[in-house]
Specification:
Elements: E1 2-10, E2 13-22, E3 29-39, E4 42-52, E5 56-69, H1 70-77, H2 85-96, E6 113-127, E7 130-142, E8 145-155, E9 158-167, E10 174-185, H3 186-193, E11 201-214, E12 225-238, H4 242-249, E13 259-272, E14 275-284, E15 288-297, E16 302-310, H5 312-321, E17 336-343, E18 348-352, H6 354-374
């Protein structure tokens, strides 16, 4: 059967095209279609071949889109974390079947298995509020799971590679994400993803994420567990003058600008319970180095305990005004101080752990006294 013109309204979208159906009398029918679809801002052309067998349906496809908006498509399909599972299922079935039959249950045993595989290319895509360009990915649907493998695209000057999988038959929409973004403009990414953090962190970064969670839960971030790695080079923290804040806490102003330039900012994070825990945070700059551990909550609150090692030049300026800190100057001429970083990513607050400083001072004096007493 030659289909010279096809026009189908699918929910709020429309498909148009042509094709052919063969093997209707063999029990092994096949369908070949060339289609153009429009769903809101998404416009795509594609080819589809489906083999309709007794026990399964296999679909092979290629899709080429000028623009695809995953955020809008998820809403149109009913995959919205704010909607109950039944509402999502109803929306999906309404988009495929006549409205009169949308609420009718379909017994799993009466349906043939569906396996779909193909590729998607998009010159521009929208996902989680971010604009991606030059996107290409392999897609597979089997056993209720949709997989986006070898997902590559450009984002704010960086290159992404990774995979994403979600079980669309589970009401909780459990997902897995393995993602690596290299060479990205960190400020551009933060500005798009979290506008409140715009112009706080600049540099060229690498971000690697390996997480799993449930996309349909009321609080998606509460289900996220996994691991993240961050590395930013040749950047700066705007509005955060770490040396000034350390100096002010010691009543020794340094007169630097309200920014901190660095050559490296890196950390590995364990993600769980709406927070990211790090044991290896590192910052390297001309004025000071930071090393330590602590938590960053998903809403941006900071709870970090770090050790600051100031440069010999910065050390000399501070010790001239606070001579009691002589005992904390190492043999290499660098002053070390325990500091606490609280507040938020947008407005971090830096303070000196004076209790630890005093305890270390008393311990040093006691050690020196014992050395004088016993001669060693």
């Amino acid at each position: 059967v030659e289909l010279t013109g096809i026009g189908v309204d699918v929910g709020p979208g429309r498909l148009e095209g042509s094709g052919r159906i063969a093997g209707l009398d063999t029990g092994e029918a096949s369908v070949d279609l060339a289609l153009r679809g429009r769903f809101g801002e998404t416009v795509a052309d594609g080819t589809i071949r489906a083999d309709l067998l007794d026990d399964r349906t296999t679909v092979d496809f290629e899709i080429d889109a000028a623009r695809i908006d995953f955020d809008e498509l998820a809403t149109l399909a009913g995959f919205d974390a704010r909607s109950p599972a039944s509402a999502r299922a109803r929306a999906v079935s309404w988009s495929v079947f006549p409205t009169a039959r949308a609420a009718e249950p379909v017994a799993r045993g009466e349906t043939a298995a569906l396996v779909a595989r193909g590729s998607l290319r998009a010159r521009e895509a929208r996902f989680a509020g971010l604009t991606l360009t030059g996107m290409a990915t392999a897609i597979r649907f089997e056993g209720g799971t949709v997989s986006f493998d070898d997902a590559a695209f450009e984002l704010h000057g960086g290159r992404h590679e990774g995979r994403f999988r979600v079980d669309v038959e589970d009401p909780g929409l459990p997902f897995e994400l393995d993602s690596r973004l290299s060479g990205v403009d960190v400020n551009g990414l933060l500005s798009a993803f979290r506008p409140d953090l715009a112009d706080t962190l600049h540099g060229t970064g690498v971000l690697a994420i390996d997480v799993r969670g449930r996309a349909a839960d009321a609080s998606t971030d509460g289900t996220v567990v996994g691991r993240a790695e961050l590395r930013v080079e040749d950047g700066r923290l705007s509005g955060v003058a770490l040396l000034d804040q350390i100096s002010s806490a010691l009543s020794a102003a340094s007169g630097r600008q309200a920014t901190t330039a660095f050559t490296l900012l890196a950390a590995g994070f364990d993600l769980r319970d709406r927070r990211a825990r790090t044991d290896d945070l590192r910052l390297r700059s001309q004025d000071l180095d930071l090393d330590g551990r602590g938590d960053v909550t998903f809403d941006g609150r900071l709870d970090l305990d770090l050790t600051a090692a100031l440069s010999p030049e910065a050390t000399a300026g501070i010790v001239r005004q606070v001579r009691q800190l002589d005992f904390r100057v190492r043999d290499d001429g660098r002053l070390t101080l325990p500091i606490a970083v609280r507040g938020s990513l947008a407005e971090p607050e830096v303070g000196i752990d004076l209790r630890k400083v005093l305890e270390d001072g008393l311990g040093r004096k006691l050690k020196d006294a014992l050395k004088d007493l016993f001669g060693r």
